[in-house]
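can u do me a favor
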């Protein structure tokens, strides 16, 4: 059912007018309201919604909206393996990937867990070989560098998590360097390969279909680089490549040995795949015990989603806040602002998770939607963003909803003096996080009346920008797993409310297919079937490239 046809929609619409005009500075002194809008029902997390432009009364009505949309049944459908991906006629079983045993698996068919555990055990065998220095390249030297080649979910998830958990690297991993390459233009490999030794470099090719042109193009460049070192191609592929895919046949056809193949399944959506063997680089960095802790953190959120009443269900509440801002307050931009350098890639990761999932304009039943769905999502590490786009947040003309994320405990440094210095860093960081959310909410009224009187018009802050603050006890494999799963489920709940399918991504497919049609025009100049703009651009490109080709031919001996 369309969101705006639900009975609670009209009530919320009538309430929205009040909060479009009432300023947050009229709400933030209400201590009872603050207590009502702060939640600690999820282990290791405190979520504060009190800087959002709403009251407990509005939140109660939003919860009624979720009940009207039958959210609890939809959650059960997701977790139990029902066909929630209607356009592709399959379930979305990523939550099964992190269940520690069949007893804790929400699925009716418990056999999935056996397959998953077998796959993880196979991954553990390969990781142990690398950690122990037993995996050797074509000259017999142990592997020292591993390059993850993937794109989309096969890159962003592993990259984000591996970077965030560097300090949890196992002793076995400290001699292994992990790199990531995804760009189809070859720029990443062009910069990376000259710094690596072909004798001690292993490439991990990650592609569900094993037909992704971006990944295979980079893989073929890696083969060319290795061949230049003097070994036969088939030999190199067996010693220097691991394949991670749902297609054993295509991995074998490409030349990857059976023992170097790790499987996952076509029911694993790309942006949810880091929980599977796609998380190979994560497990390589933090060890399999750390990886299983990472899975356990996500599973704890699955259990919270399944068993917690809507009134205290954190993924549901996060979603309802987004719905309130997007559909009732007309705030269609969402900034992700982690105050932790370890979460550098988290905004990019969430950008794919949310916008690829919920960037839809038709319902599950192919009806056109006449309300906003997914907001534009973007962000940066908070202290860096303060010197960049916070100007727009504070004094621009756009309303933006923000998520501030910070880990309360931080242990860094080796000596006592270093530890004290890093504690000072951390308190400075926390104070900036709290100050920015306060000023976004209150604007210039965060100052005393005397200080306000001294401000000129261009120094005024209007405030009234809503935000949510997420406090995490400490960043660990467990809590990073929880944080990712928290946002995954938020995206799903929002999709249910918007009546859209978050598990397909047809919007990314057409551009890929058109690219295959354009590519020949770049080599044979036959662009008659293209629009005038594209044809003219191809003509200019071919003219310039012909000069490069001629120059290369002249330089050949």
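np, heres the sequence
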């Amino acid at each position: 059912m369309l969101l705006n046809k639900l009975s609670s929609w009209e009530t919320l619409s009538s309430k929205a007018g009040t909060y479009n005009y009432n300023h947050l500075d009229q709400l933030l002194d209400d201590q009872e309201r603050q207590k009502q809008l702060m939640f600690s029902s999820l282990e290791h997390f405190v979520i504060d919604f009190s800087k959002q432009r709403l009251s407990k009364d509005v939140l109660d009505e939003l919860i009624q909206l979720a009940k009207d949309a039958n959210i609890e049944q939809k959650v059960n459908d997701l977790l139990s393996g029902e066909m929630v991906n209607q356009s592709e006629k399959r379930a979305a079983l990523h939550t099964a990937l992190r269940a520690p045993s069949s007893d804790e698996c929400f699925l009716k068919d418990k056999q999935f867990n056996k397959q998953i555990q077998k796959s993880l055990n196979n991954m553990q065998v390969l990781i142990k070989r690398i950690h122990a220095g037993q995996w050797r390249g074509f000259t017999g030297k142990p592997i020292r560098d591993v390059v993850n080649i993937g794109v989309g979910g096969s890159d962003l998830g592993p990259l984000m998590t591996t970077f965030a958990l560097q300090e949890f690297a196992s002793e076995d991993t400290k001699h292994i360097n992990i790199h990531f390459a995804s760009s189809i233009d070859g720029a990443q490999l062009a910069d990376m390969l000259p710094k690596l030794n072909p004798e001690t470099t292993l490439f991990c090719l990650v592609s569900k279909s094993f037909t992704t042109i971006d990944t295979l193009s980079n893989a073929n460049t890696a083969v060319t680089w290795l061949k230049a070192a003097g070994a036969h191609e088939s030999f190199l592929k067996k010693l220097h490549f691991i394949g991670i895919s749902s297609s054993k046949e295509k991995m074998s056809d490409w030349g990857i040995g059976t023992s170097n193949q790790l499987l996952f399944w076509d029911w694993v959506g790309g942006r949810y795949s880091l929980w599977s063997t796609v998380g190979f680089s994560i497990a390589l960095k933090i060890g399999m015990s750390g990886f299983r802790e990472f899975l356990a953190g996500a599973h704890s959120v699955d259990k919270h989603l399944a068993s917690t009443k809507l009134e205290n269900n954190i993924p549901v509440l996060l979603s309802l806040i987004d719905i309130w801002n997007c559909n009732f307050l007309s705030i269609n931009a969402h900034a992700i602002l982690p105050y932790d350098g370890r979460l550098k890639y988290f905004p990019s990761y969430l950008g794919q998770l949310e916008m690829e999932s919920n960037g839809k304009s038709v319902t599950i039943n192919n009806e056109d939607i006449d309300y906003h769905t997914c907001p534009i999502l973007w962000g940066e590490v908070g202290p860096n963003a303060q010197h960049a786009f916070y100007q727009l947040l504070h004094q621009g003309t756009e309303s933006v909803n923000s998520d501030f994320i910070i880990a309360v405990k931080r242990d860094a440094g080796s000596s006592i003096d270093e530890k004290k210095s890093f504690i000072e860093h951390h308190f400075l960081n926390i104070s900036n996080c709290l100050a920015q959310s306060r000023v976004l909410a209150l604007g210039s009224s965060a100052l005393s009346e005397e200080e306000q009187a001294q401000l000129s018009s261009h120094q005024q802050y209007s405030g009234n920008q809503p935000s949510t603050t997420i406090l995490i006890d400490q960043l660990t494999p467990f809590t990073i797993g929880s944080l990712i799963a928290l946002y995954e489920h938020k995206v799903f709940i929002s999709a249910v409310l918007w009546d859209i399918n978050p598990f397909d991504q047809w919007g990314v497919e057409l551009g890929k297919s058109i690219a295959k049609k354009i590519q020949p025009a770049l080599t044979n100049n036959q662009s008659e079937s293209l629009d005038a703009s594209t044809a003219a651009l191809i003509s200019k490109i071919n003219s310039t490239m012909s000069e490069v080709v001629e120059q290369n031919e002249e330089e050949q001996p």
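The longest strand covers residues 401-409. hope that helps!!
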